[in-house]
């Protein structure tokens, strides 16, 4: 082959090769595997209910059909239809949350280590944003029908900035996205993270650390 042809062939092989994409959860090896959530065995996921015991009800759930309770300091109700609440999702790499926000409500900064999130605003006006590993904030004001995608593991928040209630449904490409809530993780851990670590990390006096801890200790 002439050099120019081999160079083109080399470039084309990169363009045409299937990208080594990896979904958040590993692919299932069977049609379904309704999770036995309380099984004695511990695996990466859950063991399957015997197919002979599976019914249509295993593939349906009303867990996010009802408004969440927003009577709390954040004016926030998060209801999770993950594999724990909806075992039919086991091994399928998908789940959904319902986020209810009373006026002024905030879903405070947190991250999901195991899934990318796609929010759809059903009601209200919300500000949603995430911060990259380079500390760049991407945020937008969204209204009914708008989508916003939050890349896996990045810290993000949702805030109701409208006059009425807000309702968001969040889809995840994982059956159990997990949640790292920034404030409770740092200020409400058991046993507590020593004050000296947090006072240095945040460059404040330990009294400030104690005050924040008092709000997140369980
Ligand atoms: C909502 O949560 C608050 C605070 O935990 C509780 O007092 C109240 O009973 C709950 N309301 C309902 C309808 O469950």
Give a description of the structure.
Oxalate binds at residues 97, 107, 112. GO terms for molecular function: manganese ion binding. InterPro entries: Cupin_1, Germin, RmlC-like_jellyroll, RmlC_Cupin_sf. Its main location: secreted. The protein has 218 residues and is an alpha+beta fold. The chain folds into two domains: 51-179, Jelly Rolls, CATH 2.60.120; 188-216, no CATH class. Helices cover 18% and strands 26% of the residues. Strands 1-2-9-4-7 form a five-stranded antiparallel sheet, with no helix packed on it. β5 (126-131) and β6 form a beta hairpin. α3 (195-202) packs across α4 (206-216). The longest helix has 14 residues, at 3-16. The model has no long low-confidence stretch (mean pLDDT 92). Residues 69, 71-72 line the site of 2-acetamido-2-deoxy-beta-D-glucopyranose.
Question: Secondary-structure blueprint of this entry?
Answer:
Elements: H1 3-16, E1 76-81, E2 95-101, E3 106-111, E4 117-123, E5 126-131, E6 137-142, E7 147-150, E8 155-160, E9 166-172, E10 180-181, H2 182-187, H3 195-202, H4 206-216
Antiparallel strand pairs: 1-2, 2-9, 3-8, 3-10, 4-7, 4-9, 5-6, 5-8
Helix pairs in contact: 3-4
Bound molecules: 2-acetamido-2-deoxy-beta-D-glucopyranose (NAG).
Disulfide bonds: 33-48
Subcellular location: Secreted, Extracellular space, Apoplast
GO biological process, one term: plasmodesmata-mediated intercellular transport
């Amino acid at each position: 082959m002439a050099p120019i042809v081999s160079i083109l062939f080399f470039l084309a092989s990169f363009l045409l090769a299937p990208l080594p994409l990896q979904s958040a959860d590993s692919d299932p090896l069977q049609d379904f595997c309704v999770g036995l959530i309380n099984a004695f065995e511990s695996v990466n996921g859950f063991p399957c209910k015997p197919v002979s015991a599976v019914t249509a009800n295993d593939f349906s759930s009303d867990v996010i059909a009802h408004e969440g309770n927003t009577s709390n300091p954040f004016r926030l109700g998060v209801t999770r239809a993950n594999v724990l609440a909806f075992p039919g999702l086991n091994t399928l790499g998908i789940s959904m949350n319902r986020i209810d926000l009373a006026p002024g409500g905030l879903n405070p900064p947190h991250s999901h280590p195991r899934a990318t999130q796609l929010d759809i605003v059903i009601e209200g006006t919300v500000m949603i944003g995430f911060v990259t590993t380079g500390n760049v904030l991407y945020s937008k004001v969204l209204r009914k029908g708008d989508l916003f995608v939050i890349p896996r593991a990045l810290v993000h928040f949702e805030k109701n900035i409208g006059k009425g209630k807000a309702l968001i449904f969040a889809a995840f490409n994982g059956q159990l996205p997990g949640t790292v809530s920034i404030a409770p993780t740092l200020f409400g851990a058991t046993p507590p993270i020593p004050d000296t670590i947090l006072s240095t990390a945040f460059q404040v006096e330990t009294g400030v650390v104690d005050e924040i801890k008092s709000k997140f200790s369980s």
